[in-house]
Amino acid sequence: MGLSLTAQAHAIAGKNLSNGDIAIDATLGNGHDLLFLAKKVGVSGKIFGFDIQEQALQATRCRLENEISGKNITLNQACHAQMSGYIPKHLRGKIKVIMFNLGYLPGANKSVITQVDSTLSALQQSLDLLAPSGVITLLAYPGHEGGAIETRQIDLWCKQLNQDCFDTQLLVCSEKATAPRLFIIKKRTGSVLSI
Ligand code: SAH
Predict the structure, then answer these.
(1) Smaller CB count within 10 Å for the chain: N or C?
(2) Beta bridge pairs of residue 185
(3) In terms of pTM, does the model score above 0.85?
(4) In what order do the strands lie in the sheet with 166-172?
(5) Does the pLDDT value for residue 194 go beyond 80?
């Protein structure tokens, strides 16, 4: 059996990160990705996390506790469509990895899910925030209500990106229409344009 899509997202993100780098977790959820990112960038790095639910921030803080120093980690209870405003100007264009894991928070209210408009807005902002050769990983779940439309819109959004500036890939673990999919968007080195 191959690696799970989550493991593949971590492998791709991990390859792009070293000590001292800056990364964003756009959907904290239970904090797995944030902890992964924080370990990769170390104490000299910096991480920004976003989630609209207090419960996700708490779950993330809980996961970090006893694991690592949280000094260089900023958790924002905010929609990722506000992302740019939370990233200091001097760090824009310097973010090495931005991770998204869409859908609902496992174990919480399933009616709170990521939405097409805010997801696309966050993705668009991510393009400018990324450093050259920086990467976005996005896990989408077409199997839940609203998820199929969101996944389709993300697919279309990826296809309209300027392929001279961004390299996009799609990984699936099964051909089923409802199977999760991993989008990978890499900013090409030397790219100055984002649209
Ligand atoms: N589906 C994944 C987990 C995704 S968690 C799995 O099964 O493992 C997705 C997180 O995104 C949730 O915690 C939810 O609160 C958060 N979220 C939803 N809309 C958001 C938004 N607009 N901005 C930031 N986070 C959001």
Answers:
(1) N
(2) 136, 168
(3) yes
(4) 73-77, 46-51, 22-25, 95-101, 130-140, 181-187, 166-172
(5) no
